[in-house]
Amino acid sequence: MPAKSKRSVCPLACALDLFGDRWTMLVLRDLFVGKSQFGEFMKSPEHIASNTLADRLERLVAARLVETFRSEERPGADGYRLTAKGSSTRPILEAIMNWGLANIRGTEARLQPK
After folding, report:
1. Which of 33, 40, 65, 79 is deepest in the core (most CB within 10 A)?
2. Residue spans per domain, the chain
3. Which of 75, 72, 84 is nearest to 31 (CA)?
4. According to the model, what pLDDT value does residue 1 have?
5. Segments of the chain scoring below 70 in pLDDT
6. DSSP string, 31-84
């Protein structure tokens, strides 16, 4: 995250500037379960708009949580994968997921990480 985009030096505020919208953590979730192609992300049950998905992937790449790679499945297309920094978000997502399972009636964990 560029220094000029920080609203404060508070680590929680800075993390929320990166993760605090309604889509970013879902994109990370999808990466953890093995999605790598733009079209795969588009098939997620939350129905993210393509322009929003492109923006979130761009932000995650800029923050070095995700990197692009040349797809072997689709020649000429880029795929996306977590970096080590991105993989370090797993405990955060798991904690939020577990809280939701314990405290929000009707939730269930359907997607299993690879």
Report:
1. 65
2. 10-103
3. 84
4. 46
5. 1-5, 111-114
6. HHTT--SHHHHHTSTT---HHHHHHHHHHHHHTTSEEEEE-SSSTT-EEEEE-H
Q: How many CB atoms lie within 10 A of CB 90?
A: 14
For residue 79, list its beta bridge partners: 69
What CATH class does 10-103 carry? Answer: mainly alpha
The mean of the pLDDT values for the chain is 90
The CA-based angle 18-4-9, given to 5 degrees, is: 65
Tokens 């795929």 sit on residue: 79
Q: In this structure, are residues 80 and 68 in contact, taking their beta carbons and an 8 Å threshold?
A: yes
User: How many beta carbons lie within 10 A of that of residue 89, not counting itself?
Assistant: 21
pTM of the model: 0.87
Whole-Å CA distances, 63 to 3, 13, 22, 45, 112: 11, 15, 17, 25, 25
Tally the residues of the chain.
Answer: 114
**Is residue 81 exposed (0-12), middle (13-18) or buried (19+ Cβ within 10 Å)?**
middle
